[in-house]
Fold this protein.
Amino acid sequence: PPLVIHHEADGSVHTEFELGAAYEGPAGHVHGGVCALILDHVLAAPAHQPGKPAVTGTITVRYVRPTRLGRLRAQARVDRVEGAKTYVVGNIADAEGATVEASGVFIRPKRR
């Protein structure tokens, strides 16, 4: 489903969404690859600055517990910036808390 990313005044982002059977991996749960895709998208959002796009350098995903199909929330924030690299952390959570955590390094390419 399309994700609507909400940007907060503190620079963090979040989105709320619902995943159904089309995103199922293990019975009743979201496929881990879908979780990774969503986190790559959401973690990139706070790394982008107006006129300064960033691309994924690396992303590390930690599956805390199975993510049940249904209503979910993903959020991310910048942890730190070092030169052209922006380090971002975030997670996917259900009503009981985080199910998947991620960290990523996003790189602002040099202009040619």
Notes: The chain is about 15% helix and 45% strand. Residues 32-47 form the longest helix (16 residues). Residues 42 and 76 are 6 Å apart (CA to CA). The chain has a mean pLDDT of 95.
